[in-house]
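Support reply, case 0932

Customer input (verbatim):
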Amino acid sequence: MHVLIVDDERPARDRLRRLLAQEPGIERVSEARDGIEALERVAADRPDVIFLDIQMPEVTGLDVAASLPDPAPLVVFATAFDEYAIRAFDANAVDYLLKPYDAARLQRALQRVQDRLGNRAAQPGHGLAVQQLLVPDRGVTRIVRTEDIEWIETADNYVALHTPTGAPLLRQTLTGLLDKLGPAFVRCHRRAAVQARLIAAVHALDKGDCELVLHSGTRVPCSRQYRDDVMARLG
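Our regenerated output:
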């Protein structure tokens, strides 16, 4: 099992690492000091489970859990505060450890993780799309809910997330982002995709191209290459 520890406090990370070193079946343990680094580690290392603190500067553990890519690692929250338990389990957490916990309590959490991993292996392909995206912007991290994104377009090495309140830039390929967002979005152009439920009309153009009109009135180009996919999604 590959474990990622996410906590902004070094002593807490060190203690959990020592406890995990005593447990069988732990092949690798890595660490992240905040939510942004945690998502970077998840994308690069693909851990099986994250032990995730909740109260962290700028990006909380709950925000991290809601922003995990599909397929997402399992999440065990480890926090000194009990008031987040309901929200944690709403986020599909495997367990909720209250600090300070002992080795016996950690073992029970690890057993739950093993059970869940076994169930996941028996039923592959049931991951969930991310509910929100974390967008760094000049020292501030914006939280963009996927349901608020009307359409997406490429911008050099970034994608612009068009929402009713703006279009923040995220360093990500369009293809990679659509893999995270799941079936709610449909690609309509080499450089664009739209949230399918927001399409209000399809206007035919010359040479098989068309234009998608969203409920907001925004017009998004749709090339001949992707028109059949869009129409199929619309039923």
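We compared this against your earlier run and they match. Two observations from our side: The chain has two domains: 2-122, 144-234. Residues 2-122 form a domain with the Rossmann fold fold (CATH 3.40.50.2300). Please reopen the case if you see a mismatch on your end.
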